[in-house]
Structures are given as C-alpha cells and as structure tokens.
Amino acid sequence: MTHTRPLYSGPIYNTFAKDKIDPHEEVRELMSAFENHPGSMEVYGGYLRNGRRVSAFETRMRNAIGLFAIAGNSKLPWNTFRMGCAMLVRAFTKMRYRPEQLRPLSGTKMAAFGMGVSSRDVEISLPIGNNVTQISPVIGQSFSEGASV
Q1: At the top level of its lineage, which domain of life is listed (predicted)?
Q2: Could you give the CA distance from residue 27 to residue 2 in angstroms, rounded to a whole number?
C-alpha cells in the first residue's frame, strides 16, 4: 500500500503524480478488503517530548490545535482548518473507541495473504530453534497498559 497522509500533500505525492499512482484508489481498495475497517483515521494516544504519555482524547485535541495553528501557512489552508475541525469533533465522538483485529472479507487479496483474523480458529506455528511455538489469537480480551501482543 502506498503511504498516505490525510491532506495528500508533501514531496512524496509529487512522485506519485509523476508515476501515475492514485493514493485515493489504493486506500479505497485496501479499506474495501476488510469488513470491520474503522472508516476513519484513528489515534490511540501518544507521547509528549518530555516522555509523558497522553490519551487518545488529548492527542486528538493537541493535533486539532496544531492544525488550526498552521492552517494559514499551509499549502491548502481551508483543508487544513477543516481537518482540524474534524479532529476536534472526533476527540469527543471517538472517546470510547477500542481497536479490534481487522477481519478480511473472503475472496479478497487480504484474505488470501492471511491478513487480519478471518475466524476464531486461526493458529500460527513459528519455528524457534528446534521447538515449534503455537500462537492463537486472543479475541475479545483487553490488555492492560504496557502489555504487548
């Protein structure tokens, strides 16, 4: 998939145009391959320069304020301001959003590649040295802060 940014701006997009690559079409094709794609950009949190962890809500609020601050100097000021407004609205409407494993639609390239989880019975075997390790997905279980999956 081609790297995309919400405003489709920057030097990388000049290269896409030269190579006749349409990032909008690539994103549409990718999103259509999953039944539970969130449909919008999701922010899960972040870290400040001093290392303090911030929630998704605070991250969205800071991003919105940042977009408002740079809107006048951007290449597309109205779009930048509009994205700031959208981020501000999402800060409140997505407060309770929790990510889930993507489920590919059968018959799509993503299902053929084994991307996402297509059923609860998926198991993956990984050879580690002379041992084989079984990994099964944990569905419907939330993990506390600091856990890695």
Answers
A1: Bacteria
A2: 8
Q: Which residue has the tokens 């297509």?
A: 118
Cα(142)–Cα(98) distance, rounded to whole angstroms? 9
Domain parsing of the chain, residue ranges: 11-135
Cβ contacts of 86 within 8 Å, gap of 6 or more: none
Whether pTM > 0.85 for this model: the answer is no
Residue-by-residue pLDDT tens, the chain, 149 positions: 345 555 566 777 778 778 888 877 877 888 888 888 877 767 888 899 999 999 999 999 999 999 999 999 999 999 999 999 999 999 999 888 887 888 888 888 777 777 666 444 444 444 455 554 444 444 444 444 444 44
- Look up residue 40 and give its amino acid: S
- What's at 137, amino acid-wise? P
Contact 68, 88 (CB under 8 A): no
* Identity of the amino acid at 52: R
